[in-house]
Amino acid sequence: MCRHLGWLGADVTVSSLVLDPLCGLRVQSYAPRRQKHGLLNADGWGVGFFDRSSDGDTPRRWRSQTPLWGDVSFDSVAPALRSHCVVAAVRSATVGMPIDVSATAPFTDGQWLLSHNGVVDRAVLPVTSQAESVCDSALLAATIFERGLDALGGTITEIAAADPNARLNILAANGSRLVATTWGDTLSILRRADGVVLASEPYDNDSDWEDVPDRHLVEVTATGVALTPLDHSEGYR
Ligand code: GLN
Question: Where would I find the Glutamine amidotransferase type-2 domain in this sequence (predicted)?
């Protein structure tokens, strides 16, 4: 499973979230602490952030199919990238999935940035021409974009009912909202004075990190954080 991280708050540097922390995504690319599936995340990385310098909130991405730990160009530029809203991930590709930039999170529809930590049987996903890759996560992202992020909880429970082995941990943001689901893997929240971090695992040893229970929807906005249990009882229709 991959590891991902989201930020909503004040403008901060991308390096302060991804590269600098003691156990941030750079370290998680080779030594994750809570990873249940896979040993390390060497199959690429992606950092997406919202840019207010242009008209409105524009999603921008920098992705690579090489390990994050060795990327000296990103290491050099990340301290100069500042944003109020970030979605970043390091990847451990599922067997059979392509290893290239187009299969690397975050995916986008032009408004949202989305990362998927997990696996899903592609046969249960609707056929779509909008996906960025044939990778399961890209097809899942396209499905979620098509149904709208307001329906995220319902979409996840439907897909989980259709594929009981699926692990569906989503992290998505649009510049003013940061949303996530837990379905089969860990997620932690850090409420800082300047914003909120959602991450597959804590990026340091701060005792303020809180674990999100499995099968929950998390919504972060400027006004706070809301957790909602995801109902699995409705089944797939
Ligand atoms: N299934 C996705 C992929 O192949 C995500 C893998 C993961 O979470 N490790 O990229």
Answer: 2-237
Q: Is there an atom of ligand 1 within 6 Å of 174 CB? A: no
Length of the chain in residues, anyone? 237
pLDDT tens for each residue of 17-28: 999 999 999 999
Closest to 114 in 3D by CA, of 141, 148, 135: 141
Q: What SS3 state is found at 136?
A: helix
Tell me, in angstroms, the distance from the centre of ligand 1 to residue 46's CA. 13
| Gap between the Cα atoms of 9 and 189, Å rounded | 13
The token pair at 87 is 């979605």
Domain definitions of the chain by residue range: 3-229
- For residue range 199-221, what is the model confidence (pLDDT) as tens digits? 999 999 999 999 999 999 999 99
DSSP state string for 171-233: EEE-SS-EEEEESSS--EEEEETTEEEEESS-SS--TT-EEPPSSEEEEEETTEEEEEEPP--
User: Tell me: the pLDDT tens digits for 45-95?
Assistant: 999 999 998 778 999 999 999 999 999 999 999 999 999 999 999 999 999
Cα–Cα separations (whole angstroms), residue 189 to 155, 163, 206: 23, 27, 11
For ligand 1, say whether the CB of 185 is within 6 Å of any of its atoms.
no
Token pair of 230 as six digits = 């995801």
200 lines ligand 1 (CB under 6 A): no
Can you read off the two tokens belonging to residue 163?
A: 């594929």
